[in-house]
Design a protein that fits this description.
about 130 residues; mainly alpha; 434 Repressor (Amino-terminal Domain); 6 helices
Length: about 130
């Protein structure tokens, strides 16, 4: 039976294949190529821990604990990731269109406005911390 670390390693390697190479993977997960080599190189010297696993899932817009579940074929991974991402983008597009219409017609109440500002501030802090 494979350990959780073996499963995460295998799935991370599937993600490397999905994105193209380890350099692109390291950029996507905001880690140096050296760090990536330590966790998924030819002879990994470190395991993918809980925090990093959740971070990788977040960077690939995958569901929480996706990295902890065995996945087999790259073709299925491509379809699964593209379907997850497409569904999220379509939903987000729908939400943003509704918000845009609400702003034009001035139908956003104070509570909704405050929540949107919090989302924007969170997004800005996330973007600036990853730079």
């Amino acid at each position: 039976m494979n350990s959780i670390y073996d499963i995460r390693l295998h799935n991370a390697q599937l993600l490397v294949n999905f994105i193209g190479n380890k350099t692109l993977f390291s950029e996507r997960i905001e880690r140096s190529p050296t760090q990536v080599s330590r966790i998924i190189g030819l002879n990994p010297t470190r395991n993918i821990g809980e925090k990093l696993a959740r971070h990788i899932e977040h960077c690939f817009c995958l569901p929480k604990f996706w990295l902890d579940q065995p996945h087999q074929q790259t073709e299925n991974i491509d379809k699964q990731i593209n379907t997850i991402n497409q569904d999220r983008y379509e939903h987000l597009h729908h939400v943003l269109c509704e918000l845009y219409q609400a702003t034009i017609t001035k139908r956003i109440d104070a509570s909704t406005y405050e929540r949107l500002v919090l989302v924007l501030e969170h997004h800005k802090s996330t973007v600036s911390s990853s730079s």
